[in-house]
What does this fold into?
Amino acid sequence: MSEIKEILVDENSKLFDKTGMFYKKFPSDFRQIRYFTLLVVQKAPPEIKEINLLEQQISELIKNAIKHGNKNNPNKFVHVWFSFSEEHAHLIIEDEGEGFKRIEEWNEFNRKRLECFQNQNFEEMEKYISFVTEDSDEYDSGNALFAAVEYWNGGVVFNNKRNCVAVLKRFPKKRHGLEIKSA
Amino acid sequence: MEIKIRRSSTIYIIDVSGDMDMYNAYKVKNLVNKMIEKNIQNFIINMEGVNYIDSSGIGALIYVHSELKKRNMKFRIANIRGTVKKVIELTKLMGYFKITDTVENAIKQIKAEL
It folds into this structure.
């Protein structure tokens, strides 16, 4: 049975260390989310495996910040710190909203969802297919964070106010040169 | 994103291409709703031309799956690959969706259920 991953709340997590990271600030313009994402991802080395997937995952975090954090308020901004190498992608994304208050509920929901998946109980899983709140609208799918906790294998951590999320992806190390085995 | 519809006997194949994202995934939901109103019963969404999907695209597929299941209609998703497949895997929806590797196999499976 695979490990059940969770969203953490830990302001002291080392994932919030911004040393050496690039920074960009974006207005809460829903129409430009993918463009903003490209401005960030262009700093990533092209050797990164599945760079389209990295782009998609970053886009989800920026979308959450603009839509759910800042409620598309044009006077509020999203702040993004980022660093990339062939072996990692590290981002901190902060909005100016009230914070994601339902993290514990989300973790419990995801735990039940994963139990259904692990037992291949898709009838029961129907109940846990999307995490929808009173904030959700018909365009919300309520599934972005399920993929996020799986993708960001170095962690998904919120600050105490829960309006800032830090994520880390570790990519497998590439081997260069030939491996010489001794006799 | 571009959507085309074709038909194989009573089965309607929706060919989607381009990016299925937050800006246009709703078009798939709207189209399927209109097709349901026209009493169409059997659906395949062919994802062969989709290179990018986000949570809104996944949400559209969940919506279609759930609406058609409620009505006991037949539905398959065909030809997922690359990043699209990876996002569906990360979201743990392999097995929840009925997925086939080709449109032909989707047609065969639906015909066997009719």
